[in-house]
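Forgive a beginner's question, but would it be possible to get any protein sequence you like and the tokens describing how it folds?
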Amino acid sequence: MTPQEWAKLRMSLNARAELAERRRSWSAIQDRAICFLAVWAGLRRAELAALNCGDIYLTNDRPYVVVRHGKGDQYREVLLSPECRAFLKRLLKEKRARGEPVEGFAPLFLPQRGTRYTADGIYRVWKSSCSRAGIPARSIHKARHLFASVLYAATKNLRLVQKQLGHARVTTTTVYTDIFDEDTLAGMKALDKALRTVPTPPKSGRVFPEKRAKSAGNGESLTAPFQL
């Protein structure tokens, strides 16, 4: 997933959730929480499906979500961004208003039918959200790539990225140091400032070999180096 795709998805999710507020519809509020946890917490789809209300800790200065049985049955605590925290608090408020339990082992995310989402059900929410935003329905794992890349770029702390993702070995995490580039960093910096439009790639100072220039006046075309 690219920063530009996330920008479009983010705008679509927020627009739907704001409309849902006025219409007293809760599904878009839940869909937004699911997608933000996928991107801003790097949770796998099975981990999202398994979340209980008691796994969410939002009342202190260190909001986090508990993944009790991650890949390899590993336990981990994943710190949350302020935006994720706000959207989860809004979801819990809506669940209380609907008379749903919000403590202990009560499922955090509920489908329209049934008592708990499956991993495939979570992916369907993700896929439909991407479709509404007009972006390719990439796997949720691609959202983890974006999360890890941006976190590593911001901190240069590979151990932190490993802990947040729940990797058993740091060698698994090192792949994210290779897929990061400066366009991703520039895009995510813009998103962190509540970006509402698709980000524009920054000037990087890289020189490309040639650019077709205007005619020199003698019938010949000139070429010249140019920069981004």
The chain has a mean pLDDT of 76. DSSP finds ten helices and five strands in the chain. The chain has one domain: 3-192. The longest strand covers residues 207-215.
